[in-house]
Specification:
The protein is of the alpha+beta class and about 130 residues long. About 35% of the residues lie in helices and about 10% in strands. Helix 1 crosses helix 2 and helix 1 (about 50-65) crosses helix 4.
Length: about 130
Amino acid sequence: MASIAGSSALSFARPVKAINTNSLAFSPVRKGNTFLHLQPMPMRSVSCAAKKDTVDKVCEIVKKQLALPDHTEVCGESKFSELGADSLDTVEIVMGLEEHFDISVEESSAQTIATVEDAADLIDKLVAGKA
């Protein structure tokens, strides 16, 4: 049972192990108990660390690999999944980026790429590491 003391303290009768803190809910055990439901705030990127020309080239490669129509807007914040890419498409995008930028992307790094910015940031990091 959870109780709220004052305005900022939260105590538990039993130890609680948090597994996923993106969404947290305390349900009332009986009538009269309070209900607390926290929802995650969307993450917003403030700026892109990658060079503008890298981001532009990644956008071009993504549009080509996914055969997107010319009027489809692809920008740094574009998520591959929202552009219709499945896991195979993402692998092909990474392969196209490796070929164009003459880099090698480790599988663990490739799995963290979800947006154009993610890819551009990784590319700039790998290219700088080669120099």
